[in-house]
Amino acid sequence: MNDAMKKNLDRQLSRVQWTAEDSKAVCCRMREETEGAKRKWPTGFALVAVLMMAATVALAVSSQAGMLDFLHHFNAYIPGDAQTYVQKDVAVFDHELVTVQVRESYYDGRTLRLTLDMVPKEANMLLLGSTARFDDAWQEVIGLDDAAGDLADTRQVEDMVSPDTKLYRVAVEGKTAGVWPFAPGQTAFENAVLDPETGVLTVYHQELFSDDQPKRTVEFEVTLSKYPGEVKDGAVYAHTLEVTSAAKKTPTYESEAVVDYPQAGAQINRLLLEVKPQEIYYFIEFTAPEYQLTPHRTSSAVLFEFVDAASPAKRLPYGLVGTYGVRRVGEDQYVQWGTLGRDELHDSYLLRAHDADDFTRYETMSIPVTLVNDE
Amino acid sequence: MADASAGRASEALVVEWMAQYGTDVKRLCLMLLKDLPLAEDAAQETFLKAWRSYAGFRQEAGEKTWLMHIALNVCRDMLRTHWFRRFDRRITPEELPLAYDPAWPDPTLAAAIAALPLHQREAILLRYWQGMEVGEIARTMGCSINTVKSNLQRGKRRLKERLERWYYDE
User: Distance, in angstroms, between B151 CA and closest chain A CA?
Assistant: First the structure.
């Protein structure tokens, strides 16, 4: 089996190669870190550390990870003042098995972010994230940055469990009405980290909403299910929060004219940007009449990426939502949405189009934008 | 070859690693993540993490084992974050249909492996593709030898069901 598998896989993956561009990207980042040229992460991190130290008296679990720790972990761009928009000590909900402390919240009209501390009621309870398994590495359960963990520590979750341990998986699920129209089924994500000293599981929860509302009543459920066991048999705790947008206003920018991409076979009808406190939301409305939808391709055959005008080999940093999606809105008509780093507001943007299948039809155009709404 | 002031590897050493192991790391990341752009990010992140944490590298593990261990952790981490961002979290990554990717012109074997549960996929790839011994895989995956054996056994059983045509035992 060895040789057959190796030969087959090598043949099937022969087009995937480490490239000079890969090496260049790694070397650039090493140099940036070494020279301290790219200071945004350390600055943001230091700010979090200072603010969290200031909160130690108020919070029994202040050593737990904060919202920006989780977001830092996602490699997104964090503005230097991001913490100032984060509300602290939002609410406490007491339940039979756990106390749920909403330690941090951020809401900007479109996105909700929560840092939830799950405080166990019994000393022998071990709380884990919703997808944890017995063979998960312990270092990954207790650490957000696996590279900072002890590589020599090969313990697994099963090694940490004694006969009297009550093991639970904890899941958080948003229940608020309003589906993000550009990403059906992609409305939420979560991550969790355990503080082994206190037994508190901190869960980061994020939701995207369909419309921009300054105030919203949000509902979420926390489910504790015994592991091993079925989620349906778990204890479900419902919660309601009233949240108000941290965005006092949302400056909105639009492109001035239709932009053709003849080489890539697409046309941008409008580029729309909404500036929020922690990121910039973008919406690229485009047509791609040359491409047919196939079973493999259910959204769009063309994708766009924002190129850094100062360094064309790089993309502009993503915003904290950290992903993008494309929705078909009509015959040959699509909207690609996503977020950029909040400080990436420019007079014009270099937008590179490429076909999503073969990556052969690249074309880059400059698109100027103007302020259309400052409310 | 280390930068003594920061406990980091020298750039020359990282360049050497990338030349020697870059393609293997990138392909492993693709097989684990099933997404080429994510795999590129993961592979680059692997070498950056190796560079930063060189002081913690214990030479007896072997460079390749150590790098694969880091790559696995980077990919596991991405699966916990990116998948949750991009897909309904009631569906596990293993249940999702394999996306079309031009890197896999004949996806039969790759698709069968990619459809395995993550830990079985890791074990199968390290054993039969990277040619690692079971003990080495245990160190790479951060688990016990018995766990590796169990994952290999279960993974092979699933592959055999799907790939009777080419499958044969060692």
Answer: 10
pLDDT digits (tens, 9 = 90+) for B128-153: 888 888 888 887 887 778 888 888 88
Compute the CA torsion angle B75, B76, B82, B86 (nearest 10 deg): 110
Chain B interface includes A140 (CB < 8 A): yes
Q: Which domain holds residue B96?
A: 2-169
Q: Do A191 and B81 touch (CB under 8 A)?
A: yes
Size of interface A-B (CB pairs under 8 A): 173
Q: CA A356, CA A209: separation in Å to the nearest integer?
A: 27
SS3 A174: strand
CA distance to partner chain A, nearest, from residue B24 (Å): 8
Burial class (CB in 10 A: 0-12, 13-18, 19+), A62: middle
Number of domains observed in the structure of chain B: 1
Other Cβ atoms less than 10 A from the Cβ of B12: the count is 9
Q: Residue B132: which CATH number?
A: 1.10.10.10
Q: pLDDT tens across A149-169, in order?
A: 555 677 888 889 988 999 999
Separation CA A74–CA A133 (nearest Å): 22
Question: Residues 192 to 211 of A: which have CB under 8 A from any B CB?
Answer: 206
A223 touching chain B per CB within 8 A: no
Q: What is the ipTM of this complex?
A: 0.78
* A44: Cα within 13 Å, side-chain hemisphere: 22
Output b/e per residue, A82-114; b: 16+ Cβ within 10 A: bbebbebebeebebebbebbbbbbbbbbbbbbb
Of B19, B51, B100, the CB nearest to A296: B100
Q: Give B86's contacts in chain A (Cβ within 8 Å).
A: 183, 186, 323, 325
